[in-house]
Design goal:
2 copies of one chain form a homodimer. Chain A is 34% helix and 12% strand. A 3-stranded antiparallel β-sheet of chain A has the order 3-4-5, with no helix packed on it. A two-stranded antiparallel ribbon of chain A has the order 1-2. The longest helix of chain A is centred in the middle third of the chain and has 14 residues. Chain A folds into 2 domains: 73 residues, Arc Repressor Mutant, subunit A (Orthogonal Bundle), CATH 1.10.10; 79 residues, no CATH class. In chain A, a hairpin with a 7-residue loop joins strand 1 and strand 2. Chain A has 7 helices and 5 strands; from the N terminus they run H-H-H-H-E-E-H-H-E-E-H-E. By secondary structure, chain A is of the alpha+beta class. The structure holds a DNA duplex.
DNA sequence: CCAAACAGTTCGCTCACCGAACTCTCCTCC
DNA sequence: GGAGGAGAGTTCGGTGAGCGAACTGTTTGG
């Protein structure tokens, strides 16, 4: 969202990172990307962000190297957005902010989602460590599972919300899309 | 800054915390508060935030329980803002965002500030652990010290910038103000 | 060929942010 | 006691960003 006018000398690292992820959509979009959301329409439906703003934010994040855009050939005009290593490195930020929200602004009925270690399925503590084996769990080894506060999705819920009601490994596509509508068109490699 | 219109069901913890600290000033203000900034004019001078916006953000943070406002009697119309326990709990967030900025948007010449463990003065790693003794250092046990990328403050630098050029313990007042009516003038020297 | 799905774009509207100037209160010095 | 200064906000008009809804253009499936 392009920070202030200038930085007038206070170019601290926190201000610099705020230039990229200093606005709610530029945090919620990577958060959903950790959950496996990949496509424009999925972000739009799950986040409720205006499509014009979503276009801008995706371009911002791609330009910043947080997301990368890869067209999916053979599936129509469908683009996929995935986290780059720089985006995956946001995991401590997303986790810390989420943990703070859980602690100080708890949802009625408990957390809507809980994180677990994929190896032993034990929940993670607020610092991102497995409560069972004690290791610091990277995003790729974490599962997101529905928590006690999550209301069951209605029949008209969007596909992302529905898919998030089932345990799922982070960073893997949340919704399987037809790899190629028809594989008769010679697989492009 | 009052999030979107409503939450339309996606009341996840990250969105909830973004309601409070989801905007650059509401992160930079607590960051400065960790550094020991306490007063309206110090925030205004160091952050360069418009005073009207600062008034609003301080009220937001006080209302959210992140800061508390304590008038200092006997010192004129001077207010002090300090972090509450809820505000101190933002430390992992501030640290993680700063570390991400340091790693992916490095400043020319290196970091402007480095964090050290107050007990052994060893620097902290990106996870906030002491590189010497390995303990996870809480904010109250951390020092902020000038890093290699910090240009020496000019003679006309604001007092906060000048004070931050010297090592200093977090969460302690950065600038000593006259406790009562006796105003030792001569902030220079 | 037609309809549906999907990824964006366009378009007013409103509100938040900005910078500068102003006000108000309390304190100190003479 | 009055003048002056320091500090904490407040006021105000201009500008830009975020918003929702409707629209465009392309690809796929029937």
């Amino acid at each position: 969202m392009t920070l202030p006018r200038d930085y007038r000398g206070r170019t601290c690292a926190l201000a610099r990172s705020s230039e990229t992820v200093g606005e709610r959509w530029t945090r919620l979009i990577p958060r959903d990307a950790f959950f496996g959301v990949r496509r424009f329409g999925e972000f739009a439906a799950h986040l409720g962000v205006p499509r014009s703003v979503l276009t801008d934010r995706l371009a911002t994040l791609v330009g910043a190297g947080v997301l990368e855009r890869r067209p999916e050939p053979g599936t129509g005009r469908r683009e996929a957005y995935g986290l780059t290593p720089k985006g995956v490195a946001l995991w401590p930020v997303v986790r810390a902010l989420t943990a703070w929200g859980e602690e100080f602004h708890p949802a009625a009925g408990g957390p809507r989602r809980v994180l677990r270690h994929s190896e032993d399925e034990a929940p993670l503590d607020p610092d991102g460590r497995c409560t069972e084996c004690g290791t610091s769990v990277p995003a790729a080894d974490a599962l997101v599972a529905p928590g006690p506060g999550l209301a069951p999705p209605g029949p008209d819920a969007d596909p992302v919300t529905a898919a998030l009601a089932r345990p799922h490994r982070l960073l893997t596509p949340l919704i399987a899309h037809a790899p190629a509508g028809r594989p008769t068109r010679g697989p492009r490699e």
